[in-house]
Specification:
This protein is an alpha/beta fold. It has 10 helices and 11 strands. The radius of gyration is 22 Å and the shape is elongated. The mean pLDDT is 85.
């Protein structure tokens, strides 16, 4: 039995509470990403895992470089390698860093509510010094059903055991039910309600938005960053990043041509708030300048690359 500690004794202990991604994934935290089938949950998880392994920002949120283990219980190793390799190329992840910090286990029989498999995961986590485990998907990592309270409690008990023994964080990928009764992410995970109460944060990919709900009080500032993420050009991007890439592509061809101006106007109409933010970022980075058009009586301006 542990001896009770005073507040003074607790204050002298060292706590590593720095989150690994934005305000999420503090040490020993459980984050659940939920979405309907075929919306890119696995690709989201793989890109976040690669970004964390290399210390690359993801969806405008800072990452803390760390060692990551990806437990994929559905896909073959060849397919996992191909997807992660493609994502790594698209985000320009340094391969020498990625191969040191990202570990993959592909085993369709792995169950975290089984002692033998749980001990195996604990052993590998300690051997590799892993700090974050990605579990994809939840329903494959348990013997029973996610709708059964008893079965789900056994799974939760297994995950908590791994966290206690190793100090890792968990990023769990899960499905939504067929019908979602409310927009609140708390109701988004499929299965018994104890899952939502157990998780420290829930991310819900819903109708083009990533809606976040967490116990952390500093979640408010990230709402704009997570707004309308999209799978674009081989990776997940925020809407601002997407518009920024398209704007640079248009300007590189010829900003003075009528066709280019029409494309920019369409880009503004597609997402005006994202266009303004992208314009602001490119100006701050010194990549573009806004100049008045010569001989234009309406004082119209033109955007040019520096």
């Amino acid at each position: 039995m542990k001896k009770p500690k005073t507040i003074d004794e607790l204050s002298k202990m060292k706590y590593s509470g720095k989150p690994y991604w934005g305000p999420f994934l503090r040490p020993k935290e459980k984050v659940i990403l939920v979405a309907a089938p075929k919306l890119g949950k696995t690709l989201f998880g793989m890109q976040l895992a690669a970004s964390l392994a290399c210390g690359i920002d993801f969806l405008d949120l800072k990452t803390c470089q760390t060692k990551v283990m990806y437990l994929n219980l559905e896909m073959a190793e060849e397919m996992i390698y191909t997807r992660i390799n493609d994502i790594a190329d698209s985000i320009r992840a340094p391969y020498d860093v990625l191969k040191k910090n990202l570990f993959v286990i592909s085993d369709s029989k792995l169950r975290l509510d089984s002692k033998s498999y749980r001990d195996y995961v604990i052993k590998e986590v300690k051997n590799t010094y892993t700090k974050i485990i990605f579990l994809d998907p939840l329903q494959m990592a348990m013997k029973g059903s996610d709708s059964n309270e008893k079965d789900l409690k056994q799974f939760i008990k297994g995950v908590d055991k791994i966290i206690r023994d190793t100090g890792v964080s968990f990023f769990i990928i899960h499905h939504t039910p067929k019908v979602i009764k409310a927009k609140d992410p708390v109701y988004a995970p499929r299965g018994h309600s104890i899952l939502s109460g157990w998780a420290d944060a829930i991310l819900h990919l819903y109708k083009g938005k990533l809606i976040a709900k967490a116990r952390a009080s500093d979640i408010e500032p990230i709402k704009t960053s997570l707004k309308y993420p999209k799978w674009y050009a081989g990776k997940w991007k925020t809407e601002v990043e997407r518009v920024q890439v398209e704007m640079k592509s248009i300007l590189e061809k010829s900003p003075r041509k009528k066709k280019a101006r029409i494309k920019l106007q369409r880009l503004v109409k597609s997402s005006e708030w994202a266009f303004k933010e992208a314009l602001k970022r490119l100006q701050e980075q010194g990549m573009i300048k806004i100049k008045p058009m010569k001989g234009n009586q309406y004082n119209q301006k033109i955007i040019v690359l520096v």
